[in-house]
Design goal:
Pfam families: PI-PLC-X. This protein is α/β, with parallel strands linked by helices. The protein has one domain: Phosphatidylinositol (PI) phosphodiesterase (TIM Barrel). It is 36% helix and 14% strand. The longest helix is centred in the first third of the chain and has 28 residues. The N and C termini lie far apart (54 Å).
Amino acid sequence: MGSQVSKQVARRKAITTEKRTLYDLHQSCGEDFPACAFRPSDRKNWMDDLHPEKLQISKIVWPGTHDSATDRIGIPLITRPFAQCQSLSVYLQLVLGTRVLDIRVQKDRRVCHGILVSYNVDVVINDVKKFLSETQSEIIILEMRTEYGHDDPPDFDKYLVDQLGQFLIHQNDNVFNKTISELLPRRIICIWKPRSSPQPKSGSPLWSSGHLKDDWIDTDLPSTKFESNLKYLSELPPTSSRKFFYRVENTVTPRGDNPVVCVRPVTERIHEFARLFITQCFSRGIADRLQIFSTDFIDEDFVDACVAVTYARAGGKA
């Protein structure tokens, strides 16, 4: 019992120290990157506002959400706080400016996070379709994956093509060199990551898992996650020479050996440092590697920061 208490005391000290490290870094360098004061006039149509005929796919910093379809997961006040990573529906996330969705499914086509399940994936698909019907030039990266520990939904690739076929941008490495306008009227890059089913092949309507990569660091320590994100990003080639999307997640996650196991109070340890992260990307000379930037509980300022860097790149300022 005593050793367990000592372990938790040490854990709390480590978290406090790491939060102080980020606060000190923020105090020393602030939030300063090209066009950082830019705010889109219409987050729902921010890609359209940045001139789709000029904006290349490789120049976009894509605001994304982690575990996107968890707004209604589990039982309110009982299991939901342990698995909820977003409070907004997928549709409202898209309206806010989110352009990368992380959707986890299990064998009966219900969305899930770990062992907790939520609504049928049809809810997500209908939200995406509704958003696309209300906009003209917004491109979405839709990552669909079978959650760890679950079986693939039967014939899920056929389901996705049947539901989204008219919008799907087919798997082709040349897409990375194209502008948004050159891809229209197709609007979705759908990456299907099954556990055991065959991967989509080149030229198919769906994209294989190798086209969306990340280096997930399972930690609740904010500075550890922050610096690891920078390290892994620094090891990549620039976005202009990559033929895959790379995601950095501004999140930390609850750990089973810590008393705090609800997502929101844990992820808030790093949530406010998104602009600091972008600032550090520029100061360390690796801003040209940044591509997908995702978060829990996405908000306007997070979207604005990603759009600002995109705006700067489109204008040749970054």
